[in-house]
User: Which sequence fits this backbone?
């Protein structure tokens, strides 16, 4: 399937960082979904670099939907999104074209594409391609909200600092989705921002852990083998640049626990099935159980740093030194969270469409 | 795709724990691959419960290949594996059929399948279905070995105890693949076994962390978006029952590190490209870089415990108590490791077939 | 996807003519569908060779469902069907193993599988693999009937003789589905049978044209591009051995007509949308319009004939003569029709499941 | 898969006739393929309406490749093609938006998309979407030519007139690919053109039969079941608007023949395997045998005619009359042939990439 994701709702991503444009095609959307450009732009703004903690490349992200929408609603045919590339300074990359930036895909891209890849700004590997993903996610997130499903992510850990846990999922999600820097505890938010700023000053970078909750999701989504909910979600999440890990519920915190501690007891509460705890993160046997789906995404430190690094020239196979210039992020974790939400919306919408039919999301 | 995995080499899994038989179909295998029944049985033996640390259900796992093999070699047509179910004691499950065992898929299966599922022994969700997966993996692992690619997994952590790290990948992998209990440090192996035995005596269960290395894997495998190596591997790994997390390289240990620490410097060594460190676990930008692929799999405590638990009857929607009987594992981490190796072999073989053609694995 | 077909309901076929067994796995079936072994066997009987007009290989086709069924209903998990091979006379094929039977896949199989294929009785290419397809079809046909959708096929042309056209679709379909030799006109049926018998006596073979109607099918199934109803159906139909063509509605008869003749006028009749004519065979723009879907399948003469033929030995690359022995069909068109119905049921059920959700077929 | 086609090389089509733009994304192309804009435009010119026998809508088809190409070669990442829509006269369609043009997808589109579809000019169903397909095909056709594989199509029959058969495939293909009106016999070409002009004058339309040959194609492509070469090709071909049938080789002409006549005898000629005849159209058992692949495509009369027709208003469910205005083709068979070639190139390139690896097409 390569650069396409999904079964009932398929998302195809294309473009290079310094090419004409980047974009996405979404196929399988129910006809009649609302296209709310304001909300799409709001979601894109959450992804944008800001202040001292972001790259100085400022793209307008003027998205244009060139197909699949008519009179403000999806038509049900493939919806295509295009974002022109404007603020490209390709000169910064000319001297890099044969050097493998450590932690980046320059070398692996060269092996895979035999030197034909567009090396400028990371080319097709660029984090910039998450912009159309966020636009697609915005359409789905809005549609899911109308079905009572909400998604939110906070920075659980960054630079050795930890945010508080979710207390009330719905309130916290509403809060997060209007924060530029998605940390629930104000004090910790300030400290993490300062930590990123300090790291930036030092020409270095940091990563961290995101925690995401999906509430209102019905039970019964996912398959026993291969297409478990965890399988599909992790498949999508690992597409996001800099993601190196994912785990569900409290599984990592309880790594040394006993089954008697880890098992989530079922209970009838007000006629509904719940679990008393949610260590399994809302999933049993690969299938959602109706509790909030909770997962953690591990983000490595951004590989672009301004310090001198050892590396190779992969054309002449010589060792060399490299100091990256250009405009880069000292951390991308605060920008990545809306991408995580978007991927999560794709997985949930896809499974709903498969289980309840292609028109489900626009049904009353 | 549901219960099918892969793009060029497709594996479909079927069967229920207490049905007639379980099995798998593999399509897309190169013609001419060796079928070594001794090796397949060796791999299956690594999955078998043993001594006090395993369930007392003893299945012979007499596998039968009923298609796709002729004169001891693969034909290139779909290869089907059947394992009869013999030692089934379904009576143990009759009293459970309306009760949701905590941590199990009884309730989620009931939502998904509306009560039509075969509830006996976990039905299609049973860990027993990993037996045909291991048989499929054995065929692929042998074929990969002939291409210089080796896979090995050890129990990195279990019951609060940690194994030593990999020192020499090749030696350690060879050692592990002949150990019933895959721990590199003998003393730690003994302690972990004792810990599992104690836990069993207490009617409880534990989990842990597996660490897997794939060596000899060529660079250039994986896609920038959606089908990154991490995406495909995690997709497969999360199919294994009780897996709740995966992370690559040292990313979790270095969660608070700086980019200048986490980046793996490239270096030319004896004419080959290597990285000085391998914190990224052999993958940059979703694509293998030729270094060992290293990843960790988080296994939750086995949900089957003998202690009294709170739960619900999902037919009459009443709260109730449950004490599981039958034959269960106090830990499955030592049995899961060969399943992890098998899934890893499926992902690697699939990507090799896609990149180098369907006949690659049997080519000279 | 190779030997797998479908999107929401996936069918995987495996086995070789003279191997241990042949079979199929169906994934994505709604839970709760009835398994009526009597009806499955009835459908299989329509595929069986009979009297002078069939091969003398008599397989019992004792099908065994080894997974995915519990208490007489589908569970929703992969359903596997196994048919043991018993009446195999492999000796007949030993002298053929290096000779390319004209019109058969011996030579193309050898190129594709590099000599590792099971050459006995056509191996994986054998028409015998249509038996599990028919069993799968039987399950779906029954489920579709409960939704008011019926499928029937007659031999439109064979040996220069033509059957009458469909008059009343429902009556004719009911009639056909209980006929061993699916011809609507009794006199023509007798003549065609005699023609096949004569051909058999002469050691030769014939083909013909099947016409299939699907009634009760809702409008709106299929996609504008690539997954048009015609695309999906033809994809499946061309899997059937000896099929060399397919066309929809009256398109071939009206090949020289004008648009003003070919266009089917829409009309409101009793509050329903119908078309006055149905030259387009129930499909406009790749999507069903609610009228009967009608298509024709072209079956070439069975390639197995008893006459001396020129051919090659594909091992030593020499020209040679070949006279086929063994047990073969002078025509397979009368056996193929139930296979066509089965493939049609797979396409319709798949599209319904995709559009209306995975549980649609078992919904009230 | 919906509006996506292929396994190793995936083509996704998007856009509406009167929307901003139409386009395609191609994923899985080998890196390093030449992008020859002149050849792409040549192929597009073969699709353009011309003179009295084409619609008066004149689109410039200014294609723009916005990703996946760098320095004149494919990069190996998704290649996106955009064609702006300029010469749109949507007013012509406003009065049609609730009327079902007979033979068109207006009504079926309305059922499928519940009234949200873009009805202008056929929307997503428009034949205009074949322009990006032809552009994609041009890239592949050029790459295949470098591997010695050529594709050509002529109008075998149109308006009751028949072209001569292929005599020398290579010469004839070369000739056809430079003809605006692809008929081998000059006299017949003139007569067919006149026939179309007459039909146009009468406000009516005609269809016909295309015959396509693919030469230089290696043996061994295709699968025994479901993904036979015929299955994949027909799947693609039936995406083309107005296609209602396909058959391979001489199968239709020889519908009443015997096996002894239809079987193609194998023969060694100059060390190569050939068949003396090619009634099977180069395919045995679903797999190419190295002979030219020959198939016929049935094109129905263009449904847009200027005559008064009976139809319905599908909003208020009333019978009504309809006289189509606007700019339409009296025949599209001469424009469709390059689309058929393009689809054929997609199928062949896809199977080559699957069998020989993703880089095969750009390998030396």
Assistant:
């Amino acid at each position: 399937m390569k650069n396409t994701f999904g079964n009932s709702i398929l998302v195809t991503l294309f473009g290079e960082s310094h090419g004409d444009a980047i974009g996405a095609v979404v196929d399988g959307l129910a006809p009649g979904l609302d296209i709310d450009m304001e909300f799409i732009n709001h979601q894109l703004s959450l992804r944008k670099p800001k202040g001292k903690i972001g790259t100085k490349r400022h793209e307008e992200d003027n998205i244009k939907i060139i197909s699949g929408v008519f009179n403000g609603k999806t038509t049900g045919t493939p919806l295509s999104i295009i974002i022109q590339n404007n603020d490209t300074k390709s000169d910064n990359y000319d001297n890099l074209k044969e050097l493998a930036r450590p932690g980046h895909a320059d070398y692996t891209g060269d092996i895979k594409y035999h030197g034909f890849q567009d090396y400028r700004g990371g080319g097709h590997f660029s984090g910039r391609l998450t912009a159309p993903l966020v636009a697609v996610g915005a359409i789905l997130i809005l549609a899911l909200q109308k079905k009572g499903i909400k998604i939110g992510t906070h920075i659980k850990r960054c630079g050795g600092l930890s945010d508080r846990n979710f207390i009330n999922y719905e309130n916290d999600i509403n809060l997060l989705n209007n924060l530029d820097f998605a940390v629930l505890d104000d004090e910790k938010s300030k400290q993490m921002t300062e930590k990123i700023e300090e790291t930036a000053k030092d020409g270095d970078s940091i990563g961290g852990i995101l925690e995401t909750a999906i509430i209102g999701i019905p039970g019964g989504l996912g398959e026993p083998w291969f297409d478990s909910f965890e399988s599909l979600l992790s498949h999508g999440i690992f597409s996001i640049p800099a993601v190196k890990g994912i785990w569900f519920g409290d599984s990592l915190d309880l790594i040394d626990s006993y089954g008697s501690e880890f098992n989530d007891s079922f209970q009838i509460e007000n006629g509904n099935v719940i679990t008393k705890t949610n260590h399994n993160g809302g999933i049993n046997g690969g299938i959602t159980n109706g509790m909030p789906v909770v997962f953690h995404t591990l983000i490595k430190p951004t590989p672009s740093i301004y310090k001198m690094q050892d590396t190779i020239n992969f054309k002449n196979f010589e060792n060399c030194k490299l100091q990256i210039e250009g405009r880069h992020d000292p951390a991308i974790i605060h920008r990545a969270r809306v991408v995580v939400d978007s991927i999560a919306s794709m997985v949930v919408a896809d499974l709903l469409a498969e289980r309840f039919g292609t028109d489900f999301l626009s049904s009353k």
Remarks:
- The CA atoms of residues 213 and 296 of chain B lie 9 Å apart.
- Chain B has one domain: 4-362.
- The mean pLDDT of chain B is 94.
